[in-house]
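Quick illustration, no need to memorize.
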Amino acid sequence: MRQAISQNKFVEQVYGNIQSSPGNELDGNDVRWRRKKGFTCGKNEETTLHYLQFRTAEQDDTEAMYAICKLALRDHVERTFGPWNEEQQRGMFYRSTQANTHTLVLQNKELIGYYWWVREESHFRLQRITLRPDKQGQGIGTTLLRMLMEEARDARCPMRLRVFHTNPARRWYKRMGFQEMEQTEYHTEMAWNP
């Protein structure tokens, strides 16, 4: 059962005080194994990775993840479906989110986003990659996506994702090498082949 939280607690959960479990986090220095595997990144990406930490989400993180989702996607949802319905959106997010399948992205121990990707029969599917709007446009998403693309390349496995038609990230995915495959009423299905 979800519990109500005060506005101060909400802001605290979204913008800080995200504690990581011992042994459950990685910082950018721990991506050296990627370099050994041939992962290459530019100077800015190397700096970005150095300042990022990752940890598996826990159930208590779901509200903070929802807050980031709301900040990042509300405009696209409203342009696609009409006015934001808080109860409906929160319910859909909680029903579709199993926290421990998500990786939290932290910067200086502050939650700034998360991603969720899974291995399907013939490809990896990037289900979610979401950053707080104030952290977008700084190369963090590019660094994360390249990191995931490198893992897919190592596995010789394509990646697929879907994005709202109204989301400018669609252009970003194209710049990153994804191609549009098909369109639904609300989304564009995209794929990248290593």
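The two ends are 42 Å apart (CA to CA).
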